[in-house]
Structure of DUF4386 domain-containing protein:
Amino acid sequence: MFGLFAEVGARGPLIVGSDAAATARAILAEEPLFRAGIAADLAMLGCYVGVTALFLDVFRPVHAGVSRMAAAFSLIGIAVLAADTLLLLAPLRLLATAPYLSALGAPQREAAALLALKVHGDGYDVSLVFFGIYCVMLGWLAWRSGFLPKAIGGLMALAGVCYILNSVADLAAPAFAHTLSPHIMDPTLIGEAALALWLLVFGARGTPGRATRMPQAARQGHRA
């Protein structure tokens, strides 16, 4: 939710294609909204750290090695996106800070600000490659778990493939990326929503870890 607001609600209306001057005017006119998008990105990253730790614990009983590797890919993606967020501060400094106003002409500042925003988009794609791998691994773990429907595992794996395909195409083959369907990212929303809703409604009851811990606790209580 935070990420969707940042990308679609905050920055989406302000970045006017490749028009550097129009983008600069929009950012300056809606600076509080632009900064709110940055704050939403940070909130999203904090939530993803918590989700990564949660899923590491939930899926560890299914396969500890794969669960740890999935968490590692997730944390790398989070770190890349956290560093990438710094680029969003460049337009604000270039367009509204005194040293740059006097040192650079308006066209140069506006072009540099738009470049920072475009490179931020590239960094987002890099982070989604790692997050896509994370989703594929989560899908495999969910499929193998026995406490989640296999359909959710399949949807999460498909979501990961879509993340990877879309991001790699954007970075390595832009011409090919333009031929992809605009709906290629739909499975990512469906897969993640299905997993989140299932856990919200049913929780992680019946996980192998919980099943093995309960008898142990009972035995300890019996000995006491």
Summary: Confidence is low (pLDDT under 50) at residues 209-224.
